[in-house]
Amino acid sequence: MLFKTWLIPAASERRLLAQVNVIIALGPLALDHVRELALDPDVPDPGRVFAVLMVLGCVEDHDWFLAARDLFIAAAVVIAAAERGVSAKEHKVLQEFVGKHLVLERLDIEQLQSLLPQRIAEVKTNTQIAQRMQVVRDLCLVASAEQPVAKRELELVEKVAEELGVSLDFVRQSLDLPAELD
After folding, report:
1. Pairwise CA distance, residues 137 & 139, whole Å
2. Is residue 3 part of a domain?
3. pLDDT tens, 33-44?
4. Averaged over 50-63, what is the pLDDT?
5. Residue 1 included in any domain
6. For residue 182, what is the domain's CATH number?
7. Fewer Cβ close by (within 10 Å): the C or N end of the chain?
8. At what angle do helices 63-81 and 88-98 cross, to 10 degrees?
9. In a shared domain, residues 36 and 102
């Protein structure tokens, strides 16, 4: 076998585990500062957010997850449907997140869109910035299911990010888009 495709994610998984190991090695006092690690602008690696979330998810209350999940599902469906409806590629990405039981025909896009402000408020109340960044990153994966990212989908992701207090630079990094120069 010339290429061992099952090894492709191994490097990023090793990096994630190394980041988790560093946080754990620093001990309980590091938890007070671990959120800043996720927000360090000098480290242009969105992956560092996952290490922080993994550690915090093991030691913090899990109530935030329900609010984040509800926002993600509503926003992801609205984003995917923004340009000419949900494509087959977008549907596949959505199913990878929420499972094969997702039946788009049963969802009311307008109702989901009307719920976004309430769900955003719940997420802001129940989460830390690192958890909000994870939601935005996952929304970016939905928006980038088809390339190039549609303008309306980008606008929706940026709107959700902005309302969650997540920087637009993070959105652009997650979408692998060129940075906007001032």
Report:
1. 5
2. no
3. 666 666 555 555
4. 63
5. no
6. 1.10.3680
7. C
8. 170
9. no
Q: Is residue 23 part of a domain?
A: yes
Helices marked H in 27-128: 34-38, 48-59, 63-81, 88-98, 109-126
120-156: b or e for each residue (b if 16 or more CB lie within 10 Å)? bebbeeebebbbbbbbbbbbbebbbbbeebbeebbeb
- State the pTM of this model: 0.67
Which pLDDT tens digit goes with each residue over 156-178?
999 999 999 999 999 988 888 54
Residue 18 belongs to domain spanning = 10-60
pLDDT in tens, 84-139: 888 889 888 888 877 777 777 778 889 999 999 999 999 999 888 888 998 999 99
Q: Are residues 103 and 160 in the same domain?
A: yes
